Amino acid sequence: MNETRELIIIGGGPAGYTAALYAARANLSPLVIEGFAWGGQLMITSDVENYPGYADGILGPQMMQDFRRQSERFGAEFVTDDVTKVDFSEHPFRVSVGDTDYFSESVVVATGASARQLGLETERTLQGKGVSYCAVCDAAFFREKEVVVVGGGDSAMEEAIFLTKFANKVTLLHRRDEFRASQIMLDRAHANEKIEFVTPTVVDEVLAQDGQTAGVRIRDLNSEEIREIPAQGLFVAIGHDPNTKLFLDQLDHDKAGYLLTKPGSTETNVEGVFAAGDVVDHTYRQAVTAAGSGAMAALDAERWLAAREGHAATALAAPREG
Ligand code: NAP
Hints:
- The chain is an alpha/beta fold.
- It is built from 7 helices and 19 strands.
- It starts with a strand and ends in a 5-residue tail after the last helix.
- Bound molecules: NADP nicotinamide-adenine-dinucleotide phosphate.
- NADP nicotinamide-adenine-dinucleotide phosphate binds at residues 116, 118, 150-156, 158, 175-176, 180, 238-239, 282.
């Protein structure tokens, strides 16, 4: 494993596979350490209708297989395991998977973010069957239906308001009577007559009928009263966490742990280490934007490697002094 690669990509979602596609087509022979559960958030999504090129829509897991296969076609290689340690303090960089060390001239970090989950077993089994973590992606499937949104931040307000374009009724559940959301978003949600606020409540169970979400069992935290709300959709909007634990001591990041890149670039504070996709983006969080930034990271890495090689060649050609 002592061979030094030109590029290692950490992460197997839209950003990682697109970076791999661009890098493979640039003859960088990228190694993608894609994670044991490769595919990222798309693996818990059913139909994807907003990815350009798939005119008839596509299932999230199928789309990720297509992404992967396309980069493989040009020579990307994969390790289907989780990175356990990185060392960016020395060059070449070291990326470890358990006891195995991989060395690389450059690295693209594309480990994504994870939507926070309520942690209910019924929530997990109904993912993609009415339980969603992205209203922009899935709202259109709930035309003239009733849905529930959980959360008290700006995301929950934004998702609830967006869902009213499609659903007949949106019930917003939050565990406190106070909200983290900004006043303007809260006012907008309150002013929307399709949205009903039910607080302080928690979801105890997601209810199913014929394998699809049919409602939620909720508990009032003041009275402990339990009741059921019929709903064909449950949108969990309780925030996201970037998957950056491995990098926090080596790469600059914001308070929430999202990696910081130089303005107009995907390069991090460590030269030769680039970051792309949801690991840097808490605003857009779309497959198409992640893919776009994956392409940018591969182009940045390619240019950085070429400039470095140029320097190395110049150094070799230059007469030695002294
Ligand atoms: P957030 O501000 O962290 O809010 C998360 C919400 O989920 C909180 O109300 C929290 O309740 C609740 N929550 C967390 N864990 C929970 C659990 N296990 N069960 C039930 N409820 C739970 O996250 P966000 O709304 O995704 O926003 C993230 C950032 O993006 C914020 O800075 C936000 O302003 C920004 N953002 C801005 C916009 C916009 O301006 N248009 C849109 C979206 C997001 P507690 O309050 O009780 O902790």
